[in-house]
Design goal:
Layout lengths: L2 H12 L7 E6 L1 H5 L2 H10 L4 E6 H6 L9 E6 L6 H12 L3 E6 L12 E4 L12 H16 L5 H21 L1 H11 L4 E6 L4 H16 L2 E6 L17 E5 L5 H14 L3 E5 L17 H20 L15
Helix pairs in contact: 1-6, 3-6, 7-11, 8-11, 9-11
């Protein structure tokens, strides 16, 4: 089933009990990062539909009071067996919420607790529209469209059709830059990652997953809008900053941060969605696709850094290695 049919079935089931009133996005780590654009979308576009985003274990231990039969809970786990995410899906089902699961594993435990289960494609040869970030965003667009209507629904569909081409061209465009980045920053131990809007979640994700988990490097995400309310005091000529600049309503926040960094910092890597061609997408919806582009592009950056540091992205010392 695709997003449209899953949501249509859910709407039909809930028609006589008040419809969908809440959407809860639940996951851990990188899968939680994939949900942030959908959260940002619903925050910006929904008039009555409530939403929340939760790390899975907090959802289990501190579930929202409104969780119930009028809730849709979307749970994502790449491997499909993350205990916290499986427990979250089980809880949602026990509260009579409609549960939609996403995983790359067709044999995942997670699917035992889903009303609807999506097994997504993965790998460099797959369409980004078929990856979890875009699927979850698409589900939330459908829920909004079918519950209260979405004026830019057709524009969003055009964006989905175009984003793969933008990503393919952008990855080629940054190929040489990623090598230079890795050569320059291979000996650094701390990075600050800035972005705004729908992409702040990916600033968080690049920090905690790509750098902390996969490279054992210290890193912290900073919202571009919060930069001038404390964090900019650590700016100096020696500290590396990575700024992901959005196309859309929050671009002014990123541009303000860039002006300051160009004056007071020297180690600044700018990844600009506008310069990478995302402006070919409809302007009404382009901001929601920034993180889809950034994810693919930043995978190239982390791969180049891992290669030059001789620290494979799969290396772990705790995750899956010890009891926790």
């Amino acid at each position: 089933m695709n997003a449209q049919s899953i949501v249509a079935a859910t709407m039909a089931k809930l028609k006589d009990v008040g419809g969908v009133r809440q959407v809860f996005l639940v996951a851990c780590g990188g899968s939680l990062v994939d949900m942030y654009p959908a959260k940002y979308f619903l925050d910006g576009e929904a008039l009555a539909l409530r939403n929340g985003i939760y790390t899975a274990n907090e959802f289990v231990y501190a579930a929202p009071a409104s969780l119930g039969e009028n809730s849709v809970v979307i749970v994502c786990s790449h491997g499909g067996n993350t205990p916290e995410s499986v427990a979250a899906a089980e809880l949602a089902l026990s509260r009579r919420a409609t549960t939609i699961t996403l995983t790359h594993n067709p044999l995942a435990d997670l699917q035992r607790f889903g009303d609807h289960n999506i097994v997504y494609a993965w790998g460099n040869d797959t369409s980004v529209a078929d990856n979890p970030m875009a699927i979850i965003l698409g589900l939330c667009v459908e829920i909004l469209q079918q519950s209260e209507g979405y004026a830019h629904y057709a524009a969003f569909e055009r964006g989905v059709a175009k984003i793969d081409g933008v990503v393919v061209r952008a990855r080629k465009q940054v190929a040489a830059r990623t090598v230079r980045f890795a050569e320059r920053y291979q000996h650094e131990s701390l990075f600050y990652i800035l972005s705004s809007g729908a992409s702040y979640g990916h600033a968080y994700g690049f920090a905690i997953c790509s750098l902390m988990e996969m490279q054992w490097l210290d890193a912290a995400p900073i919202h571009s809008g919060e930069f001038f309310h404390g964090p900019f005091e650590v700016t100096d000529r020696e500290t590396p900053f990575i700024l992901m600049m959005n196309q859309g309503r929050t671009r002014a926040l990123d541009e303000r941060a860039l002006v300051f960094l160009e004056q007071y910092a020297e180690k600044v890597e700018v990844i600009d969605a506008k310069e990478l061609g995302i402006g070919t997408l409809p302007p009404e919806v382009v901001e929601y696709f920034n993180p889809v582009l950034f994810y693919s592009v930043m995978c190239e950056y982390r791969a180049a850094l891992a290669h030059i540091r001789q620290h494979p992205l799969e290396t772990r010392r705790y995750m899956g290695q010890v009891a926790y």
